[in-house]
Amino acid sequence: MATPEPPPSTPARPASARLPAYERRILGGSALIAAPGLLAAAFMAWGGRGWREADGWVLAAAVVVAALLVRWQRRRLVYPLQSFASLLDALRLGDYSLRGRAGGALDDLVYDINALAERLQQERLQFEESSYLLGKTLAALDNAVLVFDQDTRLRLLNPAAQQLLQADRHQLFGRRAEELGLQPLLDQPSGQLLNHRFAGRSGRFEIRHAPLRTEGHGGRLLVINDVGRVLREEERQAWQRLLRVLGHEVNNSLAPIQSMAGTLATLALRDPLPEDWREDFRSGLELIGHRAGALARFLASYSRLTRLPPPQKREVPLAPLLEKVARLELRLPVTLEPGPALSLTADPDQLEQALINLLRNAVEASLPAQGAVILRWRVDDGQILIEVLDEGEGPPASDNLFVPFFTTKPGGSGIGLALARQIAEAHDGGISLLARTNTRGAVATLWLPQPGEHPQTR
Fold first, then answer.
1. Which segments cross the bilayer (predicted)?
2. Interval 41-58: pLDDT, tens
């Protein structure tokens, strides 16, 4: 992954032949401290008894000793500060491994400088780890990610973007968005879907961009998502699942038909025919007809699922519709609990078909134990909820309950729940199938928006 250009380094301190002002002040101050003693010694040597050669040597020795003391004092004061300056200069250059040695009156300052170096070292390590993680994350993304500076020059891109633009990094880095043909994408509203041709490929893309700010300067983040490829992959997987199910169902019917047809053909070639040939032919033809009928019903169910017309909505009173659905089921009594007087905007035929499918599943689940089946409705958070409760074994632990042709019942087509959900979604609603919490069984919930309310996601 390309990285931004490093910022220019801080210029080094200019060298100077003269002593720094701080050292000159130390020397001057020390000389002023020594001056009264030197003047007193000179006055005592010069006064009263006249100047003697020994006095000159004493004065010279006092001057030399004062100079040495001034130099010693300067070193004591300046060298620690030079060490601190070297530590700070190392921090400025990014070397956080040096540490100062505590001692004397400057312990607190040494401690603070060492703590600062430790903190900067930890922060640099965290920054490097975060940068590495960010680079790996961007490299793993299928979306093309590009970052532009305030002059719309490209400063960062991931491998997906490089593949989309079909060029080397050094050819892309630093070029303007207009030169790369990406300025029209930055001018589009964020979240726009459009057809576009890149150097790497063409198709349908989702364009998202956002402003950035780095070191006080503006920039732009551009993310390009190839939604066409995602849709093609989903379509391919859907076709594979469909063909797998169709092949399974068709083979289940054709295999016995083919076997029985071969048996009947062999029987017809026998001469003379056995005495029970009529019965064999009749049972064989019945088997062929049964399997052909099952295959025809399966294909009819598939056709009904794929050719569901748009709902013809009108105002429908809910209670009479549910009473009618409850009366259609004769295998078990269905308890219709009273609810509020409601009307909804729906296609009554389609809604009735969806409820029949849910009620049929509930009855078939409750039949082995002769359990109760309850049909009720209520209003919750601006939505009309129609619930079908049974006392069966509960819903199977599977994520494929609403997948077409998936079934856990012997002889089931796997169409009922899928068709019911398709009808509910066509009415801006949905369906869920969950286990009951207070007793055994399942509860199927079909929710629809209440007239005048916006549909909500449950």
1. 26-48, 54-72
2. 666 656 555 556 666 676
Q: Is the peptide bond before 272 cis (omega within 30 degrees of 0)?
A: yes
Q: Alpha-carbon distance 254 to 390, whole Å?
A: 37
- Find the helix or strand (DSSP H, E) in which 422 lies: helix 416-426
Radius of gyration of the chain from its Cα atoms, rounded to whole angstroms: 45
Does residue 68 or residue 345 have the better pLDDT? Answer: 345
Pairing of β 154-157 and β 144-148: antiparallel
- Can you tell me the distance from the alpha carbon of 70 to that of 27, in angstroms, rounded to the nearest whole number? 7
Which residue pairs, CB below 8 angstroms and at least 24 apart, start in 248-251? 249/295, 249/298, 249/405, 250/295
CA 262 from chain centre, in angstroms, equals: 58
41 token code pair? 């010694």
Contact of 321 with 380, CB cutoff 8 Å: no
Q: How far apart are CA 388 and CA 367, in angstroms?
A: 15
Burial class (CB within 10 angstroms; exposed 0-12, middle 13-18, buried 19+) of 419:
buried
Which tokens belong to 228? 């066409």
Residue range 207-256, pLDDT digits in tens:
888 888 876 788 889 998 887 766 666 666 666 666 666 666 677 667 77
Question: Of 3-12, 309-318, 417-426, where does mean pLDDT reach its minimum?
Answer: 3-12
Please state at what angle helix 53-92 crosses helix 107-140, rounded to 10 degrees: 20
Q: φ, ψ for residue 246 (rounded to 5)?
A: -60, -45
How far does CA 206 lie from the centroid of its chain? 16
Per-residue pLDDT at 271: 75
The two structure tokens encoding residue 157: 């891109």
pTM of the model: 0.42
d(CA 374, CA 366): 11
Q: Name the residue type at position 224.
A: I
- Examine the pLDDT at 201 and tell me if it is beyond 70: yes
Question: Taking the mean position of all CA atoms in its chain, how far away is CA 452?
Answer: 35
In this structure, which amino acid lies at residue 132? Y
